[in-house]
Amino acid sequence: MAVKFTVLRTDGSARAGVMETARGIIHTPQFMPVGTQGTVKAMSSEELLSIGAEIILGNTYHLYLRPGTDVIDALGGLHRFISWPGPILTDSGGFQVFSLARLRDITNEGVTFNSHIDGSSHFLSPEKAMEIQRALRSDIAMCFDECPPYPSSYDYIARSLRLTTEWAKRCREAIPPGSKTAVFGIFQGGVFRELRRESLEEIVEIGFEGYAAGGLSVGEPKDLMHEIITYTAPMMPPERPRYLMGIGDLRDVLLAVESGYDIFDCVMPTRNARNGTLFTSRGRLSIKRAEFKRDDSPIDPDCACPTCLKYSRAYLRHLFLAREILSMRLNTIHNLSFYMRFFREMREAIMKGRFKEFKSRWLPVLEENFR
User: Fold this and answer.
1) Domain identity same for 93 and 11
2) Which of 7, 144, 308, 327 is most buried (most C-beta within 10 Å)?
3) Are 307 and 184 in a shared domain?
4) SS3 content of the chain, % helix, strand, coil (to 5)
């Protein structure tokens, strides 16, 4: 099997485990930095390794359009192209097709869409999505699915599930069990419990190396998202990794880990870094605030990342206001270091049977308003 998953310890429904791949071990719960266009924005591969990143996410849609799958394939695959030695999970492009592409047309065969870059016409099918991910040499490939927008009617989502299931079957045929590339199935269903259950059961029946909840954090109210998270996790196969796609707010992560989810990704730490919002052990901090103009202290006195060890809040505020490139780099190094440390300590808490203590300690901090 391309990915071997082992649960090492449970604490309630929270799980600490390992995913073994040919390119390295991934400890769970795990956060995947998002490398949309072959790069985690503002970070080098060496810096990602130095802060403890074990796996990154690549974006099929963006890499297919630019520089092109043929280019990456000819240069030895995505790992070699971006100089990243560890595992890579690639999304199928489905979410981007439905959220970014212009003038898309969905049929049973696939989706015809116009590129958001230059308007050129393209066709993406389940087979094509798998072909692209194989050419990228992905360690984990995601099924091509339809991601309904929020709000969508019950009837629309029920019809959408038929397409997601049929496409999942075709993805599995394109990359069968035993291949070098693992395939994760995605279930949908919006905020409707019965549709979530139906979709998950159909995807599990096909059989994949891991399972992912898609179609959340797309505009639905938090209480509905939380309801679906807590409802779906216990129904997922316990012997397979459980991936909650696109979720990165650490308050949501705590709920999801407590429910039994293992893997997460989001642009939140990197996007916030570029906008001057930094995560600390005392709450969120907006580096642009005037009170930091002469503040010689680090962003977070409890953080040992390169940014906190060497640079002051005053300097980081100056870089941000001056729109210097170094601002984005130093802020991103800190935010991703914070996320890596948070997940590492959360794993340790589960292994020690102290997840509830960890959650109780962090929730007030994560709910703290900007300073």
Assistant:
1) yes
2) 144
3) no
4) 45, 20, 35
Residues 284 and 256 in one domain: no
pLDDT band at 101 (very low <50, low <70, confident <90, very high): low
> Which strand ranges, in their side-by-side order, compose the sheet holding 88-91?
30-32, 263-265, 242-244, 210-213, 182-187, 140-142, 88-91, 56-59, 34-35
Of 219, 190, 163, 181, nearest to 2 by C-alpha is: 181
Same domain membership, residue 207 and residue 132: yes
Global pTM value = 0.97
Please count the structural domains in the chain.
2
* Side-chain half-sphere exposure of 86, counting CA atoms within 13 A: 22
Interstrand relation of 102-106 and 111-114 (parallel, antiparallel or unpaired): antiparallel
Residue among 145, 252, 265, 300 flagged as catalytic: 265
For residue 102, is pLDDT > 90?
A: no
Instruction: State which amino acid sits at residue 265.
Output: D
Judged against a pLDDT cut of 70, whether residue 79 lies above it is answered with: yes
Give alpha helix (H) positions in 100-238: 126-135, 154-174, 193-206, 222-232
- Where does the pLDDT of residue 351 fall: very low under 50, low under 70, confident under 90, or very high at 90 and above? very high
Domain end residue (candidates: 231, 248, 266) = 266
The three-point CA angle 135-140-66 to 5° equals: 40
Please check whether residues 247 and 355 belong to one and the same domain: no
The answer to whether position 203 is within a domain reads yes
Would you say residue 227 has pLDDT above 80?
Answer: yes
Look up 262 and say whether it is catalytic.
no
Range of the domain at 308: 272-366
In DSSP terms, 58 is beta-bridged to 35, 90
Catalytic choice (11, 91, 139, 145): 91
Which of these three, 210, 233, 266, is where a domain ends? 266
371 domain-assigned: no
Bridge partners of 21? 24
Please give the Cα distance from 295 to 7 (Å, whole number). 45
Nearest Cα residue to 301 out of 330, 348, 334, 268: 334
Q: Are residues 54 and 89 in the same domain?
A: yes
Residue 340 CA to residue 182 CA, distance in Å, equals: 24
In a domain, 96, yes or no: yes
Token couple for 70: 């043929």
Task: Check if 295 is active-site.
Answer: no
Question: 178 — phi, psi (to 5°)?
Answer: 95, -5
